[in-house]
Amino acid sequence: AQSVTQLGSHVSVSEGALVLLRCNYSSSVPPYLFWYVQYPNQGLQLLLKYTSAATLVKGINGFEAEFKKSETSFHLTKPSAHMSDAAEYFCAVSPGSGGSNYKLTFGKGTLLTVNP
Amino acid sequence: DTAVSQTPKYLVTQMGNDKSIKCEQNLGHDTMYWYKQDSKKFLKIMFSYNNKELIINETVPNRFSPKSPDKAHLNLHINSLELGDSAVYFCASSGRGGDEKLFFGSGTQLSVL
Lengths: 116, 113
Hints:
The complex is a heterodimer.
Chain A: E1 2-7, E2 10-14, E3 19-27, E4 31-38, E5 44-50, E6 56-58, E7 64-68, E8 73-78, E9 87-95, E10 105-106, E11 110-115
Chain B: E1 4-7, E2 10-13, E3 19-25, E4 31-37, E5 43-50, E6 53-57, E7 64-70, E8 73-78, E9 87-94, E10 103-104, E11 108-112
Parallel strand pairs in B: 2-11
Antiparallel strand pairs in B: 1-3, 3-8, 4-5, 4-9, 5-6, 7-8, 9-10, 9-11
C-alpha cells in the first residue's frame, strides 16, 4: 500500500523568495516519487522524478527535490519564486522497481501563489 | 501536435443523460488512463488500460464504461449522469514502467445540472 501527504493545501510566497512544498510518503516497497504541476485549465505536467538514482533530483523551471528515506519525505524547492510558478503542485508515489504506473497515487495538491 | 488530446473540453448536460468523452494519444504508448479531479483538486484514478486490456478499475460505478478500440484511443462513456459526476476528467498515457511519466490531456470539465 502507498500514500502521499502534502502538508499545506496553500502556500503563498513573495516573488524572489524560497519555495518549499512539502511531501511525505508511505510505501511498503522502495518507491518512485514524482512532482507534477498543474497550471489553470490545463492537465498535469511532470516537474521531476526520483527513481532510486541520485537522491537530489533536478527538474524543469529551476525546481529540485530531495529524497530522504529516513524522513520518508520528498520536498520540492526552488530558490527564487517567479510569478509564472503560481500553480497547483502534486506529489505522487508509485511502487519502485518491478512496479508500474498503474498504481500511481497522487497527493491532494498544494496551491502555490506568488505575490509581487 | 498535441500528444494527448481529449474532447470535448467542456460538457454541460442534464441529470439522467448519457455522454461520452474521447481521448487519443499519438505518443505510441501502450498504457492509457482516466483520472477524475474533484472540486477540491483531488486526483483519483478511475481506469487504466494496457494495450486495449483493462488493468485497473477503481471502484467506479458501472455507469462509467471505458472503451479502447485500439491502443491509441481510450474513450469514456457515462450513463445516467448524476450531479456528483460533475468534475474534470483527465485522460493520460504513459509507458508501462513504474518510472515512466504520465502525459495528460487538458481535461474535460463536466457539469451535470
